[in-house]
Design a protein that fits this description.
There is one protein chain. The chain contains 13 helices and no strands. It is mainly α. α1 packs across α5 and α9 crosses α12.
């Protein structure tokens, strides 16, 4: 009879672990009905995005098509986010429908601004939570593309509302509410902060420090910066706009897009990867608010977004390589367990 050799045993990950949170029962009992509903929502999303996009492209389309398309997108974003977060569909979808209908029928500035803000918030948040864990670089880039598609459709919807808002206040409001909303969702998924590992807690604190530093520095420069610094930054932005046609946005390059790349990668191993992903809403939120001002040029915004994507994804992939690298001998001796989550169109809880 042979005796097992002493030493460290490797973790058996041949069978993936079950999802670590209970999920609600399917809203539609019949699989065919559920599939039909998903297809219908997807068709509405694409059709409404095309309809709202006529506000940005000079084509022969009726004027009455624009805002109703934005209203449909508002309802679609609410439906998708509520379903993904496991919320009460009868409450939030009805509320978004009432808001969209009120803005369309009344046309008042207050309701139009509220509808545009709700559209930007829901699109920015849904773009983050619709992602799935990604183990490889290719899968990570795929999830980034999915989130970007939702955020861009939200941008088009916000532009279609053509609401009379102040861009600075609108942008701060959307980012603050989106961040609070995604934190509330992740808190329910991650069971609070006590489950954070030391490494991910350090990453979370580091990202939060960068966020505060960027916001505080930008605010300080605008309000208390010397005239020379302000004029130098303005001249730099003007030169980049004239030379390259767009300017990368720091919130996307430094915070939002790297957090999205790193967050979906960490989620493939640990649930607390969600806490890094919450900061990705700063990137998707900046996208959804970028065309709220009627004077914004779509070509300038598009080029600025492309430059932000190139720089932000590069930084994110470098961070991913560093963070996911197994440094210690113990981590190399244990096979990393692959974490399982429900499908993209299934509720997370």
């Amino acid at each position: 009879m042979s005796r097992a050799k002493p030493g460290r045993r490797r973790l058996d990950t041949g069978v993936p672990a079950d999802y670590d949170l209970p999920t609600r029962a399917p809203r539609l009992g019949s699989p065919d009905s559920a599939r039909t509903a998903m297809v219908a929502v997807f068709v509405l999303w694409v059709a409404a995005t095309v309809g709202a996009g006529t506000s940005l492209v000079a084509i022969d389309a009726p004027d009455w098509l624009v805002r109703p398309s934005a209203g449909v997108l508002l309802v679609v974003f609410s439906l998708g986010l509520t379903h993904r977060a496991g919320g009460h569909m009868r409450i939030w979808t009805v509320a978004s429908t009432v808001l969209a209908a009120g803005a369309l029928l009344s046309g008042t500035n207050m309701l139009l601004s509220a509808a545009a803000a709700a559209t930007a918030i829901l699109a920015a948040t849904w773009a983050v939570v619709i992602t799935k864990p990604a183990e490889t670089v290719a899968a990570t880039l795929k999830e980034f593309a999915v989130a970007l598609s939702v955020a861009v459709s939200g941008t088009i919807a916000v532009a279609a509302w053509n609401a009379p808002v102040n861009y600075q206040r609108f942008n701060i409001f959307v980012l603050a509410v989106s961040l609070a909303l995604v934190i509330a969702i992740v808190w329910g998924l991650g069971a609070g902060l006590h489950g954070l590992g030391r490494q991910n807690f350090t990453i979370l604190i580091g990202i939060a420090a960068v966020v505060l530093l960027v916001l505080a520095y930008s605010s300080f420069v605008r309000t208390h910066g010397s005239q020379v610094i302000v004029e130098s930054l303005t001249d730099l932005v003007i030169w980049m706009r004239q030379t390259f046609g767009g300017v990368p946005r720091p919130a996307e390059v430094i915070i939002g897009f790297p957090a999205l790349i790193l967050g979906v990668s960490l989620r493939s191993r640990r649930r607390d990867g969600w806490w890094v992903l919450v900061f990705a809403v700063l990137g998707t939120g900046v996208i959804t608010t970028s065309l709220v001002t009627p004077g914004a040029y779509p070509s300038y915004i598009a080029l600025s977004t492309v430059y932000s994507i190139v720089l932000g994804v590069t930084i994110g992939l470098l961070l991913r390589r560093v963070v996911l690298q197994q440094r210690s001998r113990r981590s190399r001796a244990i096979v990393q367990e692959r974490r399982v989550e429900p499908g993209r169109l299934a509720p997370l809880k």
